[in-house]
Amino acid sequence: MRSLTLFVLLVAVIVAGCASTQPRHIESLSGMELYQRLCSSCHGVEGRGDGPVAPLLKVNTPDLTRIAARDGGEFPTEDVRRIIDGRTDRRAHGPRDMPVWGWQLYDMSTRDGNERAQADAMIDRLVEYLRSIQRP
Predict the structure, then answer these.
(1) CB of 42 closer than 8 Å to CB of 51
(2) CA dist., res. 15 & res. 7, Å (int)
(3) pTM of this prediction?
(4) Cα angle value 34/117/43 (rounded, 5°)
(5) Higher-confidence residue: 76 or 112?
(6) Between 97 and 51, whose confidence is greater?
(7) Backbone phi, then psi, for 69, in 5-degree steps?
(8) With contact defined as beta carbons under 8 Å apart, do 51 and 41 qualify?
(9) Which of 1, 37, 39, 77 has CA atoms 20 to 30 A from the CA of 54?
(10) Which of these, 38, 49, 53, lies nearest to 104 by C-alpha position?
(11) Where are the alpha helices (DSSP H) in the chain?
């Protein structure tokens, strides 16, 4: 009987712990959290192009901390946004190997009528995070 009581108590504690932990929906993640979830496997934790998947790709994974430096010192906000959401393709570099996150974020957002606005807001947070990690 004692082991049954202990088992029931253990199950109750586990269920209570699970119930109190609300999963964060992707549309509520910060730019850094979005980057970690969506980009770091290729671009690396610090954005330097050295993620664990990078060696498996056919193209070099760019260092995202040097975007502004490669663009004459100015961070090209709109260009970065368009690359992430899929409106701009770097055709000179061959086929698009990077996921089109605009569509992916649109698919992952909730279905309450504001899907495109939510996807755009997530891309904005991601772009601002990339701006924040720029180095000379």
Answers:
(1) yes
(2) 12
(3) 0.70
(4) 25
(5) 76
(6) 51
(7) -60, -40
(8) yes
(9) 77
(10) 38
(11) 2-20, 31-38, 40-43, 67-70, 77-85, 101-108, 115-132
